Each structure stands twice: as C-alpha cells, then as structure tokens.
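User: Predict the structure for this protein chain, please.
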Amino acid sequence: MPSPFPRYATTLVASAARTTDAYSDVLTMPDDIVGGSFYLACSSVGASTTHTLDVAYYITPDDGTTYLPVARHTQLSAAINDIITICFTPFMVAGSVTAAPAATGGALYGNVTWSRKFKAYWTLGGTSPTITFAIHFIGYRLPLASVY
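Assistant: Here is the predicted structure, written as structure tokens:
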C-alpha cells in the first residue's frame, strides 16, 4: 500500500572537498513538508591529523534576521554517515527543556519546531583538514486531500 505521505528529497550541500568553516546558503523548505531526516554523508577525511567535522543547523525565529543553533550531528572523525530526524510541525513536537545546542559541543538536539528557513554550518578541525561531505534531506509532504 502506498504511503499517504509523498516523499520529498533534496541536496542541501553538494558533495565537495572542504578546507574551511562555512555556512550553507539559506535553505527554505516547502510549506507542506512535515518532517524528515538530514543525512550527513562524509566520504573522505583526507590525510589530515586529528581531523573532525561538526555540522550544525540554525533556524530563524524572525524570517532571516537572527539565526539560532538547534541541532548538530555527532562529531565525525572518519568517512561515515550520520542522520538527524526532525519535525517541522508544532503539533507533533513534545514540549521539553534542553541545554542550548551549539555548533560544536553542548546538546546535540533541541526539541523545537523548525522554521521553514534555516542554514547549516560546518566546522573542520585538525591540522590542514580536507573533508569531503554532502548534506541531503529526505522528508514527507502532507497528504493530499481527496475531492469527491
């Protein structure tokens, strides 16, 4: 039986070898996305010493003036994948109190409703790191209403 929630997939950050910390472009999710998973695909960490990759997500409470970190992947030090599942709908998020997530260290995930606009930030650690990674999102759209 097909799912009543059609899938949505996009690449947020294309795979490339990176050597510096940076923000992604501001991303805007379509209004009918209810949630899904961010896939951090790290394919190479190069030959650097004690290399690390931190990727965090920042939401905006005021449509783009202020950005706050709300989630981050576990720090990667090898060519592996990591997944964070999130919710864009306020009625599906349980209330909670959490330490403020940060780009590195601190809590990994704040149980918050995500804004439609957000951005990713990555921090590379180690001696002359060259880390190749991509960030993908696979989510679900609201079900379509049937008209009889």
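The first strand starts at residue 7 and ends at 18.
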